[in-house]
Amino acid sequence: MGLIARADDAGLVERVAAATSCELLAVGVNWNLAPVADVLSVPDCPVGDRSFGSDPALAARMVAAFVRGASAAGMRTCAKHFPGHGSTGKDSHVAAPAVDRSRAALDSVDLVPFRAAIDAGVPAVMTAHITFPALDPDRPASLSRA
């Protein structure tokens, strides 16, 4: 998705999401665990090119376009990895990352695409198995009531 985002063409992302959704629906898949709404903030982030990039505003536009395109085709989507996986170089499948961003930084960077996904009508959000001390110092987001 990162390559598509470089075109800065939300219409293109919407059409790609719709076409992909039609193909998935044709083989019986009705829920796509996408889009990745993470803003890449570190170069070694394992999310890599599944993200729409390092600019929160661009990522937000592209995430919203993906949700709209998939929805128009009849696909359910899931924005991930809330509240953001883009600022750690550790893979949460094999490590227990912690992101020491302030709440203000989370609000102005990481949460921007998730807000856009919600505004676009995304039906689900997948949490990250990453600890964000600014939100909950003791538990990863996936296990945190906060």
What does this molecule look like?
It is a single chain. This protein is mainly alpha-helical. Helices cover 38% and strands 9% of the residues. It has helices spanning 2-5, 10-26, 56-73, 103-110, 112-119; strands spanning 31-32, 76-82, 124-127. It has a 3-stranded parallel beta sheet, covered by helices on one side. α2 runs parallel beside α3 (56-73). The longest helix is centred in the middle third of the chain and has 18 residues, at 56-73. It is globular and about 40 Å long.
Structural class: mainly alpha
Please tally the β strands and state the result: 3
Count, helices: 5
> What general form does the structure show?
globular
Mean pLDDT over the full residue set: 94
Q: How helical, in percent, are the residues?
A: 25-40%
Which range does the strand content fall in?
A: 5-15%
User: Unreliable runs, pLDDT <50, ≥5 residues?
Assistant: none
> How many angstroms separate the termini?
30 Å
Largest beta-sheet characterization:
3 strands, parallel
Radius of gyration: 15 Å
User: For the largest beta sheet, what order do the strands appear in spatially?
Assistant: 1-2-3
From N to C, what is the helix and strand string? HHEHEHHE
Layout of helices and strands:
Layout lengths: L1 H4 L4 H17 L4 E2 L23 H18 L2 E7 L20 H8 L1 H8 L4 E4 L19
Parallel strand pairs: 1-2, 2-3
Helix pairs in contact: 2-3, 3-5
